Amino acid sequence: MKFGVIVFPGSNCDHDAYHVVSKHVGQPVDFIWHRETNLNGFDAVIIPGGFSYGDYLRPGALARFSPVMKAVKEFAANGGFVFGICNGFQILCESGLLPGALLRNSGQNFICRYVNIRVENSQTPYTSEIEPEKPLSIPIAHADGNYFCDDATYHQLEENGQIIFRYCDEAGETTPESNPNGARGNIAGICNLDGNVLGMMPHPERACEELLGSTDGLGIFRSLANAIARR
Amino acid sequence: MKANIYVTLKPGVLDPQGKAIQHSAEMLGFESIDEIRQGKFFEVFFKGGLSLDDARLLAEKLGSEILANPVIENYRVDIVE
Fold first, then answer.
1. Helix (H) or strand (E) holding A151
2. How many beta carbons lie within 10 A of that of residue B33, not counting itself?
3. What number is the ipTM of this complex?
4. Under an 8 Å CB criterion, which residues of B touch A?
5. Quick one: average pLDDT of A48-71?
């Protein structure tokens, strides 16, 4: 089993993701520079958070044209696991690997704090090891996390079980108050139709150690490792 | 020859930046403003020898493939000689 963490100019959560995979999931992991064109040998690639290309034009808009993204598209089409976190989610939407777009937060501010998210679908490679009853406490850190899509796309996401995480309160209720950024339907994370590509705004890699305040992010990485092991 | 390319948010897409600018304008005493929407403006300068039609084609391609995200934005191209 081998994980990869893609590094764009401006990525800044790449080492966090690497650390979690190597130390807490206990699996081999390599950094992948964005000019790489070959993903042979990898089972899962993580597109980490940060500010690829300085968020110029739109977050994720320019990263989409990096050479590695052509390889990521082929990798995903062949069933490889692609996990985009924060800026990684924005890149996946800009690339067309996930539907919709991420707009500026409704309140304009960059928000950096713990939020609660609810697992909406436990039957995915990313959530199979998580107890769905209890909300996860995982931090967000973004200015552009307001998930947007049209009505038709939203209904498709709902019908196909592609909405994986929603912002909620401590009791697990998806209230307007628990929605930090104005995201449609409190959406915090979605996957593609095949379930192998996941994008989410919260940072599970920052919630894998007691010292950091939460270990609720671990379940996502461990689910993914188990999904790879089962193949 | 150059192309002026305007990128605007689609109607109905929330624009908190435009709204904040509008509030500031109202604070300044602009009372007749109904709404401000923020967009982007690009000036694309072409090398010589390009026909008008080719310039338009190129600018349209640039608008649809890079400058605007079709999920949330519209774009408009003006070719200026």
1. helix A151-159
2. 10
3. 0.88
4. 13-17, 20, 66-67, 69, 71-72
5. 97
Q: What pLDDT shows up at residue A132?
A: 85
Determine the residue type at B57: L
Which amino acid appears at position A52 of this protein?
A: S
Containing H/E element for A7?
strand A3-7
Report the distance separating Cα A63 and Cα A55, nearest Å: 9
A87-95 and A67-77 are packed helices; what angle lies between their axes, rounded to 10 degrees?
A: 80
Q: Among this protein's residues, is A205 annotated catalytic? A: yes
Contact A105/B17, CB-based, under 8 Å? no
Instruction: Supply A121's token pair.
Output: 């679908």
Is A106's Cβ below 8 Å from some Cβ in B?
yes
* DSSP H/E element including A113: strand A111-119
Say yes or no to pLDDT of B81 above 90: no
Would the pTM of this model clear 0.90, i.e. be above it? yes
pLDDT at residue A133, as a whole number: 86
- How many CB atoms are located within 10 Å of the residue B81 CB? 6
Distance CA A132, CA A19 (A): 26
Percent of chain A with pLDDT over 70: 100
